[in-house]
User: Fold this.
Amino acid sequence: MSHSLSSTPRETPAAGPAPIARKNNGRRPGTLREVWQEYRRSPRGMLGLGIFLVFLFLGLAAPWLTPYDPLQDQFLADGMARPAWMSYFPAYRMDPVTVDRFLLEEWDIRTADNMVVEWGERDGQRVMEVRTTGPGPARLVLEHAFEYRSNPPDTFILQVPYAFTGEGGATGQAVIRFETADGRAYDLWTSRSLRNQVRWTTQRVDSRDMQLKMRLGFRPLANLAAELINTQGEYRVVLELTANAGEGGEALFTLGESRFRIPGKLHGVLGADHLGADLWAQFLYGTRTSLLIGFVVAVIAVVVGTVVGIVSGYLGRWVDEVLMRVVDVLISIPFLPILIVFVAVLGKSLWNLIILIALFSWMSVARLVRSQTLTLRERTFVEAARAAGATPGYIMRAHILPNVLGLVFASLVLLVPGAIVSEATLSFLGFGDPRVPTWGRMLQNAKSFGAFGELAWWWILPPGLALTILAMAFVFIGNTLDDILNRRNQER
Amino acid sequence: MTGAYFWRRVGYALLTLFVIMTLNFVIFRVMPGDPVSLILSPDFTPEVRQLLRERYGLDKPLWTQYLLYLKSMITFDFGRSFTTRQPVLGELLARLPNTLMLLGTSFVINVVVGVVLGIAMATRQGSRLETGVTGVSLFLNAMPSFFIGLLLLLTFGYFWPIFPIRGTMSVPPPTGFWPTVIDRIYHLVLPVTAVSLSGYGSWYLYTRNNVVGALGQDYVLTARAKGLTKREVLYRHAFRSVLPPIVTLIFLSLPGLITGAVITESIFSLYGIGRYLIDATLQQDYPVVQASFFVIALAVLICNLLADLVYGLVDPRIRLR
Assistant:
């Protein structure tokens, strides 16, 4: 996007004596290895390569580096939660940390009277089956204890999926209870008396529920989570199941994966956005998108640019004139405004963005390849091929193309940062694909949803710095390659 | 510079203008839906629709519409905005000074800082200072211009709130000439810094590389051998020889500069043409999109043409094309 000169490979002047026509598509054995030998000696090039590999790893390993979906998983933490590691700073040491427990495997059995607990399966998910066949009352108390050592939280949320089957007049009841560190106990939810068939439902308890607050004797606008969790110590979530199977009846509770959450003000590696979605996940998947866009755009642009450059340079005359006028025209259309207009009309999809950015990026490659082709065309090996009766198509494919490949590869690398930054800019301005997580979109959200007012630097800096560093890495790699190839060209 | 060169360049510029105008027409015709249905609610009777079609010339064949469109673009008759119902031209003219101020100031700062720094560092090549300056310039050059704007906003707008975070002037505006000027400048500090920081790098790197290259040439050695001072050699020989390529940089840096200005206007909510384009696009206000894109493209085109012509003047070797 910034039309910096450092990101255009230099044109090589026609150099040295013409090489002898070679077989093997002009590639000397060991050329790649020689380039690598030389490349290894450039600290700048190796730094760029190292940075690129780190980002490549982050992008590819995203699903293993974060359990969350960048966009779907919201309310994981409080809006604009700080990164978890900020608890090492005294000012934030006591900020609530996210408690997020999946309870099915974590339940401890406190009491089991007359109840049998077994594992079963429902729709491929593991479930707990709690059964009694009587006679008389049965009771099972499950508890999950957790330590809480921070300032009072703002919210807690509990979900318990369950089903009940009562045969032969069996009845049952479920109660969700919360026991505080200072010895208070609150029944957060009491089921009605269950009989016959109660279909699979998910019971949700949310501390922001006003009816719940009033039922427990608090004001409707009270912060229930802070009322309940206000000292340090051990807290318990308790699920009490009672049943009476009578004589010969059977009561069966089925419990699914229950989840207890306290969205914290400290969360994950990079904190959370305004909706409590994980910023680290957005960052990782954004890396993926950026690299994908960068490479796909660069490949398309380089293919188009190379074909146009070779054809224009080799055929010359009116073909050259027409193609170069097209290049001139396209190059003088302001890049970002035309992209904005196109995206607005054609729709904000990732592939639209990729194709449009590529459409307006191939011209520099075409000019470069053309000028290289012009010098190659006069070399003796091309003349020899022409004298031997080779068609222009064959000469372009077999003689010109292999000799511009090095240059083309350097420009491929140098096109990547421009493409990445262009996409980020468009996303930042609100023209990105709404279904795809990108760095530009992170920054757009940060700007739109008050990250600046909150000085939420952990939200603003990572995507922007990553863009800069990744772009620089590609410039380093590209310039190093370009230098090496120019040197080799001149030595020839 | 020959007359042929001049006319050729002007011809290419006109060709480009024509292509841009055609693109601008085609894009909005390719769009699904009838332009009338975009302006009007579906409740209108077919008769009213027909009337409107006739009024806007939409009942005519496409090529007539195209000619009408070309005519209205050339005469700057951009119609009315869908959202505000005001003539687009008036709005553009009201915004133009702000955009020009932002662009002009940043451009001058870019050139002066970039070239001066480039020459200064070229003579100190390899020193610690030069390494540092080049490193910082490379970094800023790689940084997306919108992120530079965001960093400035975060640092000097929110963390140390010493500069305004949005707008072109205070609300209510100050009275009197000098207070107004000062207020305008105060609001321009961050945006101009943002555009300059993202743009000076290419000027710096280009100047430095070219001067370094020139200093290694034989004629510079000859000049030194003649007994000229370092200063004289630097400015009268080395720098003069890199002047033509630096002039071409005007041509190369403009699209980037305008891009940076469009984004910066949007970040700092400046009342300018770039933000007009973005806002209108987000609101699907097509007459405004069409007009502001046309104006921006026209400006780039004119600057490119001027750069080409000046280049022809500066470098006498340019005669061929």
